[in-house]
Design brief:
Two copies of one chain form a homodimer. By secondary structure, chain A is an alpha+beta fold. Chain A has 15 helices and 17 strands. In chain A, strand 7 and strand 8 form a beta hairpin. Chain A starts with 18 loop residues before the first helix and ends in a 6-residue tail after the last helix. The interface between A and B is large, with 99 and 99 residues. Chains A, B: InterPro entries: FAD-bd_oxidored_4_C (IPR004113), FAD-bd_PCMH (IPR016166), FAD-bd_PCMH-like_sf (IPR036318), FAD-bd_PCMH_sub1 (IPR016167), FAD-bd_PCMH_sub2 (IPR016169), FAD-linked_Oxase-like_C (IPR016164), FAD-oxidored/transferase_4 (IPR051264), Oxid_FAD_bind_N (IPR006094). Chains A, B: Belongs to the FAD-binding oxidoreductase/transferase type 4 family. Chains A, B: One of its GO terms (biological process) is respiratory electron transport chain.
Chain lengths: 491, 491
């Protein structure tokens, strides 16, 4: 078995290497690659900009001594097999918009950036699919789909700079998961390069294919630790002629949950988004001038809901009538339904202004958690108590995707570690997930054992060893392999 | 690395063991288990019925010397760890309705049947989820969902006897994949036991959870070769108040494809099934008395289409109007829209009668293939030519799930192997899949290299080694490990 650990004592970067040995390795790498890649493929020295030092979090890692920028899959294959032979660890970088430090370099890592792999094929109109390279932005995918009369099912705030490869590595979510599923559900095929340079190509775009293991599933959501995705065949949906949204003010979270159940039941697949904004965030957006909300501050909760339908008048009427009946039932205090594309965009701009408001404040730490709907109030109550016990000035700012049980739970504090310990403890107690859609990266792996058992983490390590036996791909992201490197039993 | 091959020379069943050694192993197994499991857990001798010798294919394997029937996850864990320690291979059996021989025992295998694990929890009404054990039938899941006001998204003909565990192992498909996705899309969580007895439990039911690898994805569709699923948390959908179907006669496959595109565009997510019946099958059903179809024989093709909607009158009218406009456009020759639940059931009975007609004929061999829509006519034309060249009496009988590109392609012939070589060659040439929804099992692995590259199969073997290093779970299904067992390099 080519597992590496027995046969190659210099595995990964876990054994301290001397500075000389590192430089020799880097020289060997540059020597091997510069002759076989084009001039733009290697950035070194001052050409390595600050952007390569991190992601959308505040922290910066060391400047990589080398940034490798392949043009195509063959380049990626060459780079990976060369690095694998040398035991050279890589940080894989896409749009670097992550929020868990996954793309932040660590000491000794060379960057592999997919930024030059930005080709899109034409939309296959009959199949409703689109094949793109990993460096294509989400917005380019959305626009190509729309031009061909289709909708791409995932949308997130970072759409303009996040890339397909990173979206797949983190199994991106966003605002329409309750209708279209996570990014995983958009992937009909992948092309992936393994550390040994072998290329797994599965781009047929077949909706049904049970011919052997669906290897693609391993790479979706594994944060670049098992292989490097170079291309994807993405599933598109017919473009819905109608998109309408509405902003509701509600008395409470319980009312919002009852509204969600009612809309699901009465609107079925028309319902495409159900977002919530808690009053502290809504007030901050309004008073800070980040947006001009159409309903006054002071409600117990705000919900932004959306339908996507086929029949303009029928579906619009049905949506309005369903919301009105929710007002009559006392679930909703007030509601504004968009009457024009301008209204529609305005309400979504209000939702995006939440992030702008949050990012405008210093000392803000964020948690991206999933909580079972039945336990969400318990989570909020218990977490608030725990926060105050640690920092009497700590107050939560909350918004997110209630339709999927996903809250962005932000806290303004100087005591990040203690607050994180407390919030994640309560997440675990209420049966939730410490990362709903942002992944684990470097920054959350400390807390992974709160929500994943020792057996599960052991199984993750088995997969890592199977696909990346020399630990060159995003090492140390999601979980550590230290126990093995220290010579202990693998389980 | 606990990969077994180095440390345990008696791996799997690939080295010929003496009869004595096999019997000693079996005695040791029975001794270890009988003291710790209840009396109903071990079947031996005459208590092992013929049913345990196979699946829904005609072939029968040897009668297993022992059938193990755990009551719960702890029993499964004990059974697997004991077999793993002894190197005792197992065939994993659910409802034994498979069509690829995956559940057919091989010489020396003991059966692990999940038939006594049939508990269902109550439906979680707020989350819309249901937790069940692996031995629960699909029909029980469907009925429990409906009683609680929900729909389960997958339906196949074997619903009365196929089980959740087998459905997950084969990533079942069926008639509503174009609306709800494959079985994979219904799985929100799994509990799985690995060969070493460790239990991976992930039954939180969270729609968004990116906290580490989604290990569940590895077990879905891997045909019981990586772990034994003991429980699943299944996603349910709001029960649609309206279900209407229609039977169309059409001039050609091209017309059916145009109709599919039109219905997708105009009906969006209302469209829940798009099945086709080719004229030879339709005529056989009608003249053989398997059903009484409402449209005359003789058309170029028949399509059975269905919508599931929220608003009875609106959606019904919309469906009828869309089909009428397709008649006016010349895509459809004639159409019957169901006007009552009885009509509705009658049309689905017609579709199910296709299987009854097919199974009534001797010498019938079946292929379950996916073909890209753009190449489907090429596939049909080329395959027909290839068939006739081999057997001048061979004629294809075709029906299936056009909405997903999945055809059940049946041929009446005595020359199975030659015909299979030819059909699968054409599948590969047209970019298709040799198994759309039935899996590979024992019976199709010979042809797997036609559609999956050597790198892909090598990656599957890496996963097998990582999860089942002693090759005790369904060995020889999907692919063989011989090269490794013979001491060759693992790649």
């Amino acid at each position: 078995m080519n597992s590496g650990t027995g046969s190659n004592p210099a595995v990964g970067d876990v054994r301290p290497a001397t500075s000389d040995a590192k430089e020799a390795k880097l020289s060997a790498l540059i020597g091997a690659l510069s002759a076989r890649l084009d001039q733009g493929a290697l950035l070194m020295g001052d050409d390595v900009g600050d952007g390569y030092r991190g992601d959308a979090t505040d922290d910066r890692g060391p400047r990589p001594a080398l940034v490798l920028r392949p043009r195509d899959t063959a380049d990626v294959s060459l780079i990976l097999s060369t690095c694998n032979d040398l035991g050279q660890p890589l940080v894989i970088q896409g749009g670097r918009t992550g929020l868990s430090g996954g793309a932040r370099p660590r000491e000794g890592e060379v960057s592999l950036s997919l930024e030059r792999m930005t080709r899109l094929e034409n939309v296959d109109l009959r199949a409703g699919t689109l094949v793109v390279e990993a460096g294509v932005t989400m917005q380019s995918v959305q626009e190509a789909a729309e031009e061909a009369g289709f909708l791409f099912g995932v949308d997130i705030g970072a759409r303009g700079s996040c890339t397909v490869g990173g979206n797949i590595a983190t199994n991106a979510g966003g605002i329409r998961v309750l209708r279209y599923g996570m990014y995983r559900a958009q992937v009909l095929g992948l092309e992936t390069v393994l550390p040994d340079g072998s290329v797994l190509s599965s781009l047929k775009g077949l909706p049904k294919d049970n011919s052997g293991y669906d290897l693609n599933q391993c790479f979706i959501g594994s944060e670049g630790t098992l292989g490097v995705v170079t291309k994807a065949c993405l599933r598109l949906h017919p473009l819905p002629p109608l998109q309408v949204n509405a902003l509701c003010s509600l008395p409470s979270l319980a009312a919002a949950q009852a509204l969600l159940a009612r809309l699901r039941q009465e609107l079925g697949p028309l319902l495409s988004a159900f977002e919530v904004i808690f009053p502290e965030v809504y007030a901050g957006v309004a008073t800070g001038g980040f947006a001009t909300p159409p309903l006054p501050v002071g409600a117990g909760l705000y919900a932004l809901v959306e339908i996507q339908g086929q029949d303009e008048s029928e579906n619009h009427e049905r949506f309005a009538a369903t919301l009105m009946s929710a007002v009559e039932a006392g679930l909703v205090d007030d509601v504004v339904v968009s009457q024009s594309p301008r209204d529609y965009r305005g309400l979504w701009a209000l939702r995006e202004a939440c992030s702008a408001f949050i990012f405008s404040m210093d000392r803000m730490v964020g948690f991206d958690v999933s909580i079972p709907l039945a336990r969400m109030q318990d989570f909020l109550t218990d977490a608030a108590v725990r926060l105050l016990a640690i920092d009497s000035s700590a107050r939560p700012y909350v918004f997110g995707h209630l339709g999927d049980g996903n809250l962005h739970y932000m806290v303004r504090t100087d005591r990040y570690e203690d607050i994180a310990d407390a919030v994640f403890d309560v997440v675990a107690e209420t049966g939730g997930a410490i990362s709903a859609e942002h992944g684990i990266g470097l920054d959350k792996k400390k807390w992974l054992p709160l929500v994943r058992s020792a057996s599960e983490i052991a199984a993750m390590r088995r997969m890592k060893r199977a696909f990346d036996p020399n630990f060159i791909l995003n090492p140390g992201r999601v979980f550590d392999m230290e126990t093995e490197a220290a010579g202990k039993a693998p389980r």
